[in-house]
Amino acid sequence: MPKITVQGIGDVNLTDKDFITSGGEGMIYGRGDTIYKLYIEPKNMIPPGKIKELSVLTNPSILKPKNLISDKTGNVIGFTMDWVKNNVPTVKLFTNDFRNRFSIDLEKTKKFILNSYRVLQHLHDHRCLMVDVNEFNILADLTTFENPYFIDVNSYQTPNYPATAIMMSIKDFHSKAFSELTDWFSFGVITFQLFVGIHPFKGTHPDFKRGDIENRMKNNVSVFNSNVKMPAAIRPIDDIPATYKEWYINLFEKGLRSAPPLTMDAKIIVNIASAIKSGDKIMITLVKKFEDVSISKFYNIGITPITVNKTKSEYVAYVKNRKYTLTKNYPNVMLTPTSLTPVCAEINNDVLLLTNLKTNEILYSATAQQMYLDEGTLYYINNDRLIEVLIYEQSSKIIITSQSSWNVLPNASTVWDGAVSMNVLGKFYLVIPYRFPGKPTSCFMKEIPEITGLKILEIKRRKNMCIVVTHNNNTYNRNILRFNKDFTEYEHSVVSDIDYVGSPNFIVLDNGNMVYVTEENSIEVSNKQSTIAFSDKLPTNAKLWTDGGTVYFSNDNELYSITVKK
After folding, report:
1. What string of DSSP letters covers 17-85?
2. Sign of the dihedral through C-alpha 284, 287, 293, 296
3. What does DSSP assign to residue 548?
4. In CATH, what class is 282-564?
5. Phi/psi of residue 484, nearest 5 degrees
6. Taking a C-beta distance cutoff of 8 angstroms, is the pair 418, 446 a contact?
7. Would you kindly state where each structural domain of the chain is located, as residue ranges?
């Protein structure tokens, strides 16, 4: 990486460890509290005059260009921005899966929307337009989920620099030019999804092809149309505050354009639970009901089940019918191999702590930024290393050691459920440590060219199956990677134009069969040769679990088993 000069700062030597990601325009690096955006082609660099016009934006939620960056010959090749960490794109807040995990309720949603409204109004007050008001260009903070951050500011429209790009899914096809009203239309599209979890022109209508959002938008045929059938996983439209619901109807059904309401009315929501029953082809049996908690995780190590549940204020774990209090964070629980002592793993302020839940003794600590648990083995990232943690017992003493480790790019690596993704100078790499009994841990670390260049929303791996949810060309797609036994080869398939509902809901049995819950809440069972689809549907928030041979699902505080009727 060549040396760069930052206006008003001086020379900066960036390295590969500072690399975060790359796109069509250039590469993004980060160090300390500063982002460095470097253009591949300097001719594509935002004009200094536009940076000056953007400087009037003073709202701290707008992450605008700050200092110019030049190369050793003095050519301007990029700019700096503030680096705000611990955030997620707004699209994550659309899904029930993410909202349930982080307790994002209607009140938090309303605050996030109203705070975003104020930022967008600030843009308009200073004669600027955001234009591409999409779910990836507004971030939500991971602490409260109430504060937005507006990014991709260099693409905004300013008085003398028109915008040229907009995502089709939020475009106002009834307007010939960008304006404050087209910004508000796009704002309406993404805020509707924050309330309900579905695009206002999604669902199915008998007169339009599935996924034909553009013609539905042109003809004002939204989800408020009585002939539109919507998927089961959405949240009730009646939960939308009345002032915003009326605005949405005018916006999407009647084609009327206006700014959103300044306030939201209060609303009391009453959730009515429906009975869970077996279907025509599957038998559903209640296994256990927990009091005053909702099930967050259920898994087995050997023959001992672990259930991690969530109350209003904390997480609790049940191991062999004994209850252990955890923390407010999202913890992982492991068992020691001999005595089956539960050990809690959590990260607080970049410190990984492993705690004996029986004695509250801290067994292990290390610097860590991310972690995940895979079939009883813990992995964590400490700067540029992915590290495996092993637990064993000797003379009744619990011993925890770090074992194998692998190099990763610290800023460009993301831990998911069962895998790590890494952006290696624009190429998508998948990192999967795997173990065979009696052998040292190996690690699959290769580019997946079928995924390179796509926006990554979710990754989940179970055994030799990995599902990657991506966004490309205005559609969400489900990429399925089926690895062979020793992770030397994989087969790739894709299901296009799905409804994004959060983390893929699937498990893999010991016989190799994958059981998947579709976006419509029906069940599919597949292997390498075939797929069997069942018409029976599970509850909206059902989440699949397995002990290797039996299929379970949790729904709120109840755990059920599923078998196929003979």
Report:
1. GGEEEE-SSEEEEEETTEEEEEESSGGGSPPHHHHHHHTT---TTB----SEEE-TTS-EEEEEEE---
2. negative
3. S
4. mainly beta
5. -75, 180
6. no
7. 4-82, 87-253, 282-564
Closest CA to 417 of 507, 351, 494, 315: 507
Contact 492, 449 (CB under 8 A): no
Nearest CA among 197, 183, 200, 194 for reference residue 112: 194
CATH of 87-253, one of 3.30.750.24, 3.30.420.270, 3.10.310.40, 1.10.510.10: 1.10.510.10
User: Could you please report the per-residue DSSP string of 194-235?
Assistant: HHHSS-TT-SB-TTS-TT-HHHHHHTT--TTSTT-B--TTSP
Could you give the CA distance from residue 154 to residue 423 in angstroms, rounded to a whole number?
A: 23
Angstrom CA distances, 257 to 162, 185, 249, 421, stand at: 22, 7, 11, 41
- CA–chain centroid gap for 526, Å, is 25
Is residue 344 a contact partner of residue 336, using CB atoms and an 8 Å limit?
no
Measured on CA atoms in the order 373, 418, 365, 313, is the torsion positive or negative? negative
Taking only the tens of pLDDT, the chain with its 566 residues reads: 668 999 999 999 999 899 999 876 789 999 999 999 999 888 889 999 999 999 999 999 999 999 999 998 889 999 999 999 999 999 999 999 899 888 899 999 999 999 999 999 999 999 999 999 999 999 999 999 999 999 999 999 999 999 989 999 999 999 999 999 999 999 999 999 999 999 999 999 999 998 899 999 999 999 999 999 988 788 999 999 999 999 999 999 999 999 999 888 754 444 444 567 666 788 899 988 887 667 777 776 555 677 877 766 677 888 877 888 886 566 788 889 888 899 999 998 899 999 999 999 999 999 999 999 998 899 999 999 999 999 999 988 999 999 899 999 999 999 999 999 999 989 999 999 998 878 889 999 999 999 999 999 999 999 999 999 999 988 999 999 999 989 999 999 999 999 898 999 999 999 999 999 998 889 999 988 888 888 888 888 899 998 888 899 988 888 899 988 76
pTM as predicted: 0.90
The whole-angstrom distance between residue 71's C-alpha and the CA centroid of its chain comes to 36
CA distance 198 to 194: 8
The CA–CA distances, whole Å, from 402 to 16, 320, 375, 388, 406 equal 25, 28, 17, 6, 12
Which letter does DSSP use for residue 125 in this model?
H
Yes or no: is domain 4-82 CATH 3.40.50?
Answer: no
**CA-closest candidate to residue 203, choices 191, 218, 216:** 216
| Phi, psi angle pair for 29, to nearest 5° | -120, 155
Give the DSSP letter of residue 418. Answer: S
